[in-house]
Design a protein that fits this description.
123 residues, Glutaredoxin, 5 helices
Amino acid sequence: MRPILSSDAIHPAIGETVSTYHSNVVQEVIQAAAANDVVVVGMKQNPFVKKARKTLQQAGVQFTYLEYGSYTSQWHKRLALKMWSGWATFPMIFVDQTLIGGSDELQALLKNPDENLKSLSRV
């Protein structure tokens, strides 16, 4: 597990800034993951996001899609999500409120029948 800077190591003068950085976007993703079995968080023009969505559609898996800008817009919102999740790329795919990774990890999980991902069963 990667080390995360302890809140004790953040100066009080910036603590609120750190803890509230686009927290509305983070809360939106948390709420979507709580309300839906499968959530894909992505961005326009990203081929891996398109691949993940197509893979889920072809597998008959219903999902909720949240999109935050493109390569040139809304990068601050995506940065907040990266900081929160620790996942540096898009898409971010959540199954049963658990981050499973991106498009490649989704492909691997769908190919592995031993994975217990009830939400990825065919609809």
